[in-house]
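Retro notes, structure queue

What went well: the backlog is down to a handful. What didn't: a couple of records were mislabeled last round, so from now on we paste the full input next to the output in the thread. Example, using AraC-like DNA-binding protein from Nocardioides panzhihuensis:
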Amino acid sequence: MPDSFEVDTAAVSQAERSDYWRACVCDHFVPLAVEPVAGQLRGRVAGSMLAETGLRRIRATRHRFERRSKDVRSGDPEVLQVLMVDLGQARMEQDGRTAALSPGDITLYDSSRPFRVETSGDFQFTIGLLPKRLLPLSNELLVTRTARARSSADGVGGALGALMSSLATGRASASDPTQQTALQHALVSMYVAFMSDGELSGSPPSVHLGLAKTFIAQHLGDPALSPADIANACGISLSYLHRLFASDGVTVAGYVREQRLQRAYRDLTTSPLDERIQTVSSRWGIPEPAHFSRLFKGRFEMTPGEARNAARGTRMSR
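Corresponding output:
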């Protein structure tokens, strides 16, 4: 899988191990206090990126991990983390709740607020780190979903757990950016369904909705892409296509626009700094500069140039 990595405390001497491990955990997750608990420290993290989503598998001896207020203030990647317990027992605390976790359990936690995780012994977690801006859910709702233990034995939890495990181990890898985006869409849809917990409207995405979103991801660069094109490609009627997206809480046009803007935002903040803004917007199906600028500012509360300048400052400060 592209951009994959693996770090292991066995690669360094015992004297260097603690500092090396703490730096690795903070680099590949979020900045936080990493406290091995007694005994000889052993730890391994392996992972990769799927479009903008980080996938990690961490295995180590007993630990406490705590993201404190000062860690949040020093830098927040604004990711929702989904943790599945593969081995061991753990406790997750966030937003005034505590979840007791056993193998097969899944829980959510948010990088924007303090949290604490403590294991009772050796453990292995599979963790997904999804940018919150990709989720069509309010922060107020996210606060109510953290630190709650759910099972991955069946239902949406089972589907989410199986997909996370496959992606983290490379069994469902994808080298093509379009395929990665389609898989990320699947993760986003499963996250939303997983968080619904009987309180949000809608249901897990249908096969047709998934096909439609995959087709859209493959044709975002075509400015002429229309709902009729999408319906024809999926073998469904135009009215049924609109109903599918309405059940997901969006319009077809709104979904296409959001995906184009998300791709443009990613490219503006990660691509070479001398690439023209119009080149980026045209790549994602919005070739008219003034129209793109209006849409972008309406979505992200900054102009495309401001987004690029902010990214340039971040890169130069590293």
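Agreed that this is the format going forward. Reviewer comment attached to the example: DSSP finds twelve helices and twelve strands in the chain.
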